[in-house]
Amino acid sequence: MFSLENIVRPNVLKMKAYSSARDEFKGTASVFVDANENNLGSLAGERYNRYPDPHQKKLKERIAVIKGISPKQIFLGNGSDEAIDLLFRMVCRPGQDSMLHLPPTYGMYEVSANLNEVQLDAVQLTPDFQIPVLEVLRNVKDTTKLIFVCSPNNPTGNLIEPESIETLLDNFDGLVVVDEAYIDFADAPSWTTRLAEYPNLVVLQTFSKAWGMAGLRLGMAFASEEIIALFDKIKPPYNINEATQELALKALDQTEQLAYMIEEIVQEREMLSDALPTLEAVEKVYPSDANFLLVRVKEANRLYNYLLEQGIVVRNRSSLSGCEGCLRISIGTINENQQLFQAISNFR
Questions:
Q1: Which of 69, 77, 107, 142 is buried most, with the most CB atoms less than 10 Å from its CB?
Q2: What residues does 205 pair with on adjacent strands?
């Protein structure tokens, strides 16, 4: 049976979080000389001489309304990568514990495992990029603290069958982390709607994809209040800067425009998915629930280099097990997609 106390590192349970100047002061004031800031102002603009809200209260309140959960179930990180790294620091003892991931998948799970000296166990996805659930459970050890499931998966683009994730959640006593960076492009509910059912569920999302804010580096983790409290305990005190918080709040006022962008990207994805298989160089276009396509081609390395010569950059994923001969192609503008199609059609 899952118990948070049984999987969190003992030193994390015992430690005290850093208390910043903004944590210790409550109320209103007109003179702030407590945080060693430059009170003369900032060359970057108004308010940037002050430290940002360390808990991003306004931003979390707005996100909570959109997601239909409590602000206390939200952690905001410097990209989803910060949340991934903090999960390792939270529950995995260096040199002792392990994690399990499902390649081909997002490479930062492996990077964070190596950085934190956590043993990396892997179970390959099936040929149709689904979870071999029984094999995963057979590979779970007493030291396994984390299982990462990317859905829609990167680089394959497909949603993972919900029944498989449910089975992992029901039968694994560690944390199941469902990375939903691309969920806005999928016709499926988010796993944030299941948080009340599963105390061992952590859901990752981001502002980098559908929201078009990759340059701001703002990621989200959703989980029980107890897990989020641990995130807040071990994070850097001011991990989300003031400019990012302001611009994210501005973006959250434009959900109608977000819907239009998602619709256009999905339409272009389907058009490109239908058109590419007609080209001689293309062998297969895999079904996608994301804002990219995984495309198997006849000569991946030659085509990749040819596209570079045409000024078109795609991602060569042919070195990954399960993605041999494949390029990952992000959905661009109508004009960019037309240029890509024409370039591949001219490839000999």
A1: 77
A2: 220
3-state helix, strand, coil in the chain (%, to 5): 40, 15, 45
Sheet holding 326-330, edge to edge: 282-285, 292-297, 326-330, 315-316
pLDDT for the residue numbered 129: 98
Q: Where do the H-state alpha helices sit in the chain?
A: 4-7, 10-14, 21-24, 57-67, 80-91, 108-115, 133-139, 162-171, 225-234, 242-252, 255-275, 300-309, 334-346
Cα-Cα end-to-end distance for the chain: 58
Residues of the chain scoring pLDDT < 70? none
Quick one: which of 216, 254, 255, 258 has its CA closest to 56? 216
pLDDT of residue 21: 80
The reported pLDDT for the residue numbered 54 is 95
The structure tokens listed for 286 are 């895999």
pLDDT number for residue 265: 98
Q: How far is CA 121 from CA 116, 135, 137, 148, 317, in A?
A: 14, 12, 12, 11, 21
Beta-carbon contacts of residue 75 (< 8 Å; ≥ 6 apart): 83, 220, 221, 222, 223, 228, 231, 232, 235
Q: Are 171 and 309 within 8 A, CB to CB?
A: no
Taking phi over 0 as left and psi of -120 to 50 as alpha, with beta for the rest, 24 belongs to alpha
Query: Dihedral, CA atoms, 221, 227, 232, 233, nearest 10 degrees?
Result: -150
Instruction: Count CB-CB contacts under 10 A for residue 237.
Output: 16
Q: What domains can be seen in the chain, in order of their start residue?
A: 4-253 (3.40.640.10), 256-346 (3.90.1150.10)
- For residue 98, give the 3-state DSSP assignment: strand
**Element of type H or E holding 77:** strand 74-77
pTM flag (> 0.90): yes
